[in-house]
Amino acid sequence: MPRLYGETALGLAWVIALLASLAVLFIGEVLGQTPCLLCWFQRAFMFPLAIVLGLGLWWRDDRVGRYGVALAIGGAAVALWHLGLYVGVIPERIQPCTAAGPSCTDDNQLVFGVPIPLMALAAFGAIAALSALSLKEKHS
Question: What is the pTM of this model?
Answer without folding.
Answer: 0.86
